[in-house]
Amino acid sequence: MSNSNLFLYIGKPIKNEYGRIIGKVASFALTPSGKFDAVFIEFGDGQFSKQLMENLRFSGAEVTFISKIKNQASVLCDQIPLIWRKDQALKDLSEKRKISPELNQELHNSFDSVLTQLKKNARIIIDEAAIEIERCQEEISSLSYAIANLEIEHEIGKVDEENYKSAFALLQETLKRATSEKTDFELTKSKVSSVLLGDSIQIPQRTKTYAEQVSVAQKLPEPPVVVYVKEIGKAGI
Predict the structure, then answer these.
(1) Other beta carbons less than 10 A from residue 129's beta carbon
(2) Reported pTM
(3) For residue 147, is it within any domain?
(4) Could you tell me if residue 97 is inside a domain?
(5) Residue 22's domain is classified under what CATH number?
(6) Where among 66, 84, 103 does a domain terminate?
(7) Average pLDDT of the chain to the nearest whole number
(8) Which residues 6+ apart lie within 8 Å of 28 measured at CB?
(9) What is the Cα–Cα distance from 80 to 192, expressed in whole angstroms?
(10) Chain segment 59-89, per-residue pLDDT in tens
(11) Among 6, 64, 116, 174, which has the highest number of CB atoms less than 10 A from its own CB?
(12) Count of CB atoms situated within 10 Å of the CB of 67
């Protein structure tokens, strides 16, 4: 995209991946050679932030802010297994005596240092994702509470039909975005945790529905009937 086209984005709204407006393009930072390096964003509360170009996507008239957590998580999920495989390949080469012990140790130390830093970054991403998940859950709870109150006020006639439909649609759309965002962060956290532990993501077993439980119960044999007989001694005759 040419420089003139990018400058046309100044003042344009910036949305996150879920369609929520988070701010607008205030300006750009360029390198001495004229390459676009960063974007200055004015958020809704009036604060400014400098973000790298890789964190935004410019498409037509749309400017989308890509979650840094998801970006970094994607990189880590590629790099950690790659460095691990390289270190394992190095070990195999050493056992086959294709490289000297000194070179093996030097390269292993290098890979181990990089892997340690990547794992540290991964734990930070997991913690940040957990914070975002909690934020989304709080928003979902608040929206659910707002919808419930709207339904009550509409039911008793304090909110007319037109305003009810408008407010309900707005709340439902916002709830959908918050739920989608939470799901994305949960998936991101799960993927990074899986890579960090070296295990594949475990898919939880689906819980049987009530109807399925009833069906299984109907197929089970009837429990045996136990009859207790009280022995009567001679004194009771």
Answers:
(1) 24
(2) 0.69
(3) yes
(4) yes
(5) 2.30.30.240
(6) 66
(7) 84
(8) 6, 7, 10, 36, 37, 38, 39, 40
(9) 10
(10) 888 999 988 898 899 999 999 999 999 999 9
(11) 174
(12) 19
